[in-house]
Design goal:
- By secondary structure, the chain is α/β, with parallel strands linked by helices.
- The protein has helices at residues 42-53, 64-74, 86-98, 114-121, 139-144, 168-177, 236-243, 253-263, 266-290, 311-319, 343-357, and strands at residues 13-14, 21-22, 28-30, 81-84, 104-108, 125-129, 150-156, 183-187, 212-217, 230-233, 294-295, 301-305, 322-326, 335-339.
- The chain has two domains: 13-30 and 267-357, Alpha-Beta Complex (Aspartate Aminotransferase, domain 1); 42-263, Type I PLP-dependent aspartate aminotransferase-like (Major domain) (Aspartate Aminotransferase, domain 2, 3-Layer(aba) Sandwich), CATH 3.40.640.10.
- The chain has eleven helices and 14 strands.
- A hairpin with a 6-residue loop joins strand 1 and strand 2.
- The chain starts with 12 loop residues before the first strand and ends with a helix.
Length: 358
Amino acid sequence: MAYKPRGALDGLEENIVTGVWDNSCKYHRLMANENPYGCSALIKEALLKTMEDGPSNYPDGYTTALRMAVSKKYGIDKDEILFGNGTDEIIYMLGKAFIEPGDEVVMPEISFTSYISSCLSMGGKLVSVPMKDDLSVDLDAVLASVTDKTKYIVVVNPNNPTGTVFCEKEQYEFLKKVPKDVLVILDEAYAEFYMGESFPDSYSKLKEFKNLIILKTFSKIYGLASFRVGFMIANKEIISLVSRVKNAFNVSTPAMAAAVAAINDSKFTEMVSENNSKCIKYLCKELDEMGYSYTPTHTSFILIDIKKDAAPLVAALSKKAYLVRPGSDFGLKNYIRVSIGTMEQMEGFVKAFKECLE
């Protein structure tokens, strides 16, 4: 069978166990943290307008309309924002802009893997910091791993793939202790799913901490994963440096229009957040009753401990049309990471989960 990159299904769904292509079965993609509710209804009209305005023209290289919308949404200066073809591109731009051979990047050992390849591709050295026993990020251990060779620190909050979060006080105390010449990349891709009362206000800290870089995405709560729109927020000097390695037209006109429509539809994101919370509570209740432990999550996914090699369970679930992420991808072979779908999908997953375990 010809090689196909992860997620490239071309209208067909691949049985990840047998390798057989089958378009007669509807697979539930609970492995990619995609938004199960689609995207805002406002986006269709915005996309149609881009066709009327002329697809033959190059995109706005300054991303003006989207820049203004993001600036207003987060209360930040319009020139403190840089957009990318998803946050993945921004992560690689940061590597190109700052990492030289021998430079160190400090990050938790279980976190978003794009930062690893970005570091290594530029000849950098990855310094992997062990997690706490509950799989949360050990900020003190991260600080203790900083040396005079450290170029930047990466922390994802809430963390992917564990779903854990650190609070406002922890974040502030951490930032105060980081050397001023070491950059801090704070990835908040899942921040909008936070179910507590006080998620850290990172934007208010940009003036005090000139070394802070915040990453955001339109792929998760906004449901625009296929459009590939992400952005970073930082002081103008950092934005200027990273802009030097940016492609001229890295965000398409339709993607910009979709993102503007999405960020202005708060009713949609509130619905997604509310339903995500309900589904997590339902799934946790079921897992509690079955006696399976999990990492408390503040995201659109959950990490479940199977207490044994999870590979057979992943295979069995796929045969029942439920695709989940094996924890072995993150060095956690006894775990599975399950994206939170609709309530119907979660009920179906629980039924399949029980059947597979039996």
